[in-house]
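new request in #modeling-help
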Amino acid sequence: MTVLQGPAGVEGRTIYKRPSLLTNTTSYCPGCGHGIVHRLLAEVLEELGVGGRTLLVGSVGCSVFAYDYLRLDAIESPHGRAAAVATGVKRYRPDKVVFTYQGDGDLAAIGTAEIVHAAARGERFTTIFVNNGIYGMTGGQMAPTTLAGQKTTSSPGGRDVATTGYPLPVTEMLSLLPGVHYAARVSVGDPGLVGKAKAAIKRAFEVQLEGHGFSMVEVLSTCPVGWGMTPSEAMHRLTTEVMAAYPIGTFVDRPRGIAPSLPQPGSPTRSITEGF
Amino acid sequence: MAVLERPAGADRPHIVASPPGTGGEASSIPDRVLMKGNEAIAEAAIAAGCDAYFGYPITPQAELLEWMARRMPEEGRVFVQAESELAAINMALGAAAAGARVLVSSSSPGISLMAEAMSYMAGSRLPCVLVNVMRGGPGLGSIGAAQGDYLQATKGHGHGDYHVPVLAPSSIAEAIELVGDAFVLAERYRTPVMILADGILGQAMEPVRPDFPTLDRQAPDWNIEGAEGREPRSLRSLNLRAEDLERHNLDLQAIYAEITAREPRWTGEHLDGAEVLLVAYGTAARVARTAVERAREQGLKAGLFRPITLWPFPAAALRDAAGHARAVLVVELSAGQLVEDVRLTLDGSVPVMLHGRMGGMVPSPDEVVEAARRAWSGTEPAVSIGPAETQQGRVR
């Protein structure tokens, strides 16, 4: 517990308490968002009182180290397969709280099939999807989530959408699936946003604890080293350029009646029928 | 005649064949039932206490998936038809990590997709039984019986220094027995175990005893279940410090050495005084067995050595069996895979010839008798693959 003493005569108050599920240090780069997301996860699981029965399904990338910093039972997955691994875990132990912790290279490139089908089946686990728009671990290559024009080590002239396509809006895509019961995109760009991010992560786990289907939170994050920026420059880019390309918000919360309005099978929308 | 319920296609009942006078006709449990190999393997896994099954449709193993689709929910156990073999094996990885007794099945192309996770499971020491109902390859190949995955199964599906025990049934009754044994090995050594069958073993029907063996269970003390009141466990293969990873590899190698010392299995027929020794496994061994009988009727002293564990290879037993032979003939449904282990084992002490067929072609017993006769007389080429009439691929 960190206690700051106020001026003489003023009672001290706790402004930060390390969650018991968090270990002491991380090896993440200065300005990297993983440490913030880990802390939010630890706080949420502690507040929900489920840390002792929560199983972490790890992934490949910098996110692989999560099991060193969160005091949770954990299983490692091959690159991209976390959603399949979590399916196996949760189906066998539906009484446990299960979540995957995946980066954008893992989830949005090599693991697209696994995440889409786990979401389509409405698997009752939670996915924390940390999107920093780059392959950080391997040295800053272009990811499917890299912004148009962004320079990376594998798009040295900037991402050319004509040849490499457009940034993949994974959470919007998954939100269309009836199996997805909660989906939100949040950001760790400033303290206010971090507070909202925590609320979304908490809600995602509540949806799981209530027995509903798939829940996920995409967390827009930073990679100062991969982006070639200082930590504060990276946070600035996150709150401007990145959040402009990836709008934050709650896309789906089916238990609370928030769902994308889509044409239902058998009832074509007016605009389509009128067009014909 | 009695009927055992089937999952799909109830219009095709299992016929129970009770030999006259055995009393099986009157019993509520028939003494023998005709079962498809794929279905028998599935039911054997259920009897052995399989908690979770994950699969993806592929011929010639699809009936295994279909059987599980009905039976696992009936038993209140986990069944998921995955979106790919990649997903199926990774679901198995997750369930195994949580402590489940897990079965996965596929056929050759699907096994190639599963190779990555096999490596992870070996590295993370997760028990699992994987059935490969082999088909003809390479590539999409055919759906006929073949044994072209021998090297893949025994020398490594995925990356890294690891082995998994490989059990090769030669009949459906034996497959049932080996399913239970595979779970025992998987849990004893905390390793994936492969059952290597083929299209004929998967698709054929044979009479089997329906009293499938059950298996005891010991609660694992390494699985993930939540770290309440203890230090967290992480099941992983990542080990970035070279010293640590070498130590982990040494631990794995020690386990493989123990398996190699304790678990080789084989069987043989007419091994005493065999002058020409046939070596074959699985369906090829069924043909070789008939060939040995016919050869002996014709006065040729032939014997059969049949490895049941392909890894660990029963090397010491093969050396003993080949001790007095003037020639060894390896019969396989592939172009020279098993023969590599046989040659390595016998190390030039006796001439070793290969008779191989591929692509779903199965040699006739008479074709094998002829090859055995030539092997005995020293006129069989070292490598003979393909149909006899073409002479193609013959190397002297």
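bot summary: Residues 213 and 239 of chain A are 31 Å apart (CA to CA).
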